Model the fold of this input.
Amino acid sequence: QVQLVESGGGLVQPGGSLTLSCAASGSILSIDAVGWYRQAPGKQRELVAAITSGGSTNYADSVKGRFTISRDNAKNTQYLQMNSLKPEDTAVYYCNVVVTAYYGGTLYRGDNYWGQGTQVTVSS
Done:
């Protein structure tokens, strides 16, 4: 009942910028938190940015000052703006949302949903 569709990945040169989008749809009452994760080849998945419904943000040390997480509540869309990209940022990026939803006569609170992932490659 909740679907996430990611877009915006691609190939970019070092120092360039990309903005990732994550559009949520379905029987959503609210999006309570959002996280952007990434997984590079041979490495574990890591949290790079998060935002709560109240607007509080957290960033991994490796991306502080370069990445910005944001939300458009009216569109149920989440964004990750990535500036000053480095080769070390190359990874598959995943959007995760924590939602409150209602369907099938049941209220669901605190469920996690994942986007399909989008590849970001930073290379000259």
Notes: The CA atoms of residues 34 and 97 lie 5 Å apart.
